[in-house]
């Protein structure tokens, strides 16, 4: 067929992903190798381990995606790869692979910004016109931005310290949640969501972060500190060893999740009011896109639904597999760029990048 075809490659963190999309955004083939289990066992990502696993998997992940699509490398229009932001050692694997691949097959290269790809993925699934508001929340990101075009983003707020998924993962580790029978294959965020269902959040009234700060930024380390102090106090009261608290784990989970959700909702509300006051969103069908690993949390979605309903926005949240890192979102960003002819490097150009 005459359709343009893009191979997308993602290695910025702990997922090795590849996908082939046509220019309509139809996924012709994809493959994803997750390192999450390995990193769960070591209690966090060790960059050199992530790099080794990307190296071990990149060849077959790309080969699988191509095979499943039935597309030969020679038929590709371009290769799109995440160049930033991310772990430098992880990014380097995708970039080295891509450099060799585009040289060998003489293909144009499209450098992709990982966060922009997250932000635009919803457009592959729904017709969403620019501009729209986007909230990205995961283990590595938390930001609010107005997506104004394929390469035009207005950043309204970001985390001043850690990302919400990171906070939930750290609280999960401090409570040794992977030792709980229901939780041992779950990330901290998933475990806290599950345990919070049986908890009473009012038992621990944690302070919502940044109550006095008049901007749209986030902060989660203060909350993590409050939670840690509470856990230490309870451990002392019960006379149990660190990480073996039993009695009020559900209540702590519920209070932590509630505070994260409230903080995200308040900052988003503020961003919506700012956008309205400054005419940054369209009058008809203004949209908030919610994405990232933390976006699959139903309690957080509910909190944001209340905000979007009261402000008249449409809330769109891609299904979990498109909220987390994968090759599809990178290929989709490549398609969007190809359509507009933006940011495409001709064959045989050296791929330069500065990881951040
Ligand atoms: O997008 P993702 O797979 O990877 C990056 O961080 O880039 O997101 C993973 C993060 C982890 O921190 C995990 O705890 C969090 O998303 N997460 C959740 C849930 N599922 C995953 N957090 C809260 N509730 C969930 N259901
Ligand atoms: Zn990501």
TrEMBL record:
CDD domains: ASKHA_NBD_OSGEPL1_QRI7_euk
Cofactor: a divalent metal cation
Catalytic reaction equation(s): L-threonylcarbamoyladenylate + adenosine(37) in tRNA = N(6)-L-threonylcarbamoyladenosine(37) in tRNA + AMP + H(+)
Record carries keyword Transport: no
Pfam families cross-referenced by the UniProt entry: TsaD
Domain Gcp-like, chain residue ranges per copy: 27-332
Single GO term (MF): metal ion binding
InterPro entries to which the protein is assigned, alphabetical: ATPase_NBD (IPR043129), Gcp-like_dom (IPR000905), KAE1/TsaD (IPR017861), TsaD (IPR022450)
Record's subcellular location: Mitochondrion
Cofactor binding comment, as recorded: Binds 1 divalent metal cation per subunit.
Gene Ontology biological process: tRNA threonylcarbamoyladenosine modification
UniProt EC number: 2.3.1.234
This protein's GO CC annotations: mitochondrion
Keywords associated with the record: Acyltransferase, Metal-binding, Mitochondrion, Transferase, Transit peptide, tRNA processing
Function: Required for the formation of a threonylcarbamoyl group on adenosine at position 37 (t(6)A37) in mitochondrial tRNAs that read codons beginning with adenine. Probably involved in the transfer of the threonylcarbamoyl moiety of threonylcarbamoyl-AMP (TC-AMP) to the N6 group of A37. Involved in mitochondrial genome maintenance.
Family, similarity comment: Belongs to the KAE1 / TsaD family.
Protein name as annotated: N(6)-L-threonylcarbamoyladenine synthase
């Amino acid at each position: 067929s005459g359709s343009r075809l893009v191979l997308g490659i993602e290695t910025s963190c702990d997922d090795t992903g590849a996908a082939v999309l046509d220019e309509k955004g139809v996924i012709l083939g994809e493959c994803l190798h997750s390192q999450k289990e390995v990193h769960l066992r070591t209690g966090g990502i060790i960059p050199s381990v992530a790099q080794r696993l990307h190296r071990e998997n990149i060849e077959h992940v790309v080969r699988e995606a191509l095979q499943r699509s039935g597309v030969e490398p020679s038929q590709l229009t371009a290769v799109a790869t995440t160049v930033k932001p991310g772990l430098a050692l992880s990014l380097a694997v995708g970039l080295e692979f891509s450099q060799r691949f585009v040289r060998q097959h003489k293909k144009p290269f499209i450098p992709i910004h990982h966060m922009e790809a997250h932000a635009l993925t919803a457009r592959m699934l729904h017709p969403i016109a620019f501009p729209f508001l986007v909230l990205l929340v995961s283990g590595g990101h938390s930001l609010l931005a107005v997506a104004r075009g394929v390469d035009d983003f207005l950043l309204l707020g970001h985390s001043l310290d850690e990302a919400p998924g990171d906070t939930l993962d750290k609280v999960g580790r401090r409570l040794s949640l992977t030792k709980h029978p229901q939780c041992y294959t779950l990330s901290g965020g998933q475990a806290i969501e599950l345990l919070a269902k049986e908890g009473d959040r009012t038992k621990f009234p944690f302070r919502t972060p940044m109550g006095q700060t008049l901007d749209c930024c986030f902060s989660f380390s203060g909350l993590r500190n409050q939670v840690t102090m509470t856990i230490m106090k309870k451990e002392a009261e019960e006379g149990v060893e660190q990480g073996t608290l039993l009695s009020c784990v559900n209540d702590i989970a519920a209070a932590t999740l509630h505070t994260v959700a409230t903080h995200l909702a308040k900052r988003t509300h503020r961003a919506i009011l700012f956008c309205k006051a400054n005419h940054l969103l369209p009058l008809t069908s203004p949209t908030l896109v919610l994405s990232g690993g933390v976006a699959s949390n139903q309690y957080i979605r509910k909190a944001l639904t209340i905000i979007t309903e009261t402000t008249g926005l449409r809330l769109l949240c891609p299904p979990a597999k498109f909220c987390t890192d994968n090759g599809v979102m990178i290929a989709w960003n490549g398609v969007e760029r190809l359509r507009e002819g933006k940011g495409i490097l001709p064959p045989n150009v050296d791929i330069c990048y500065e990881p951040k």
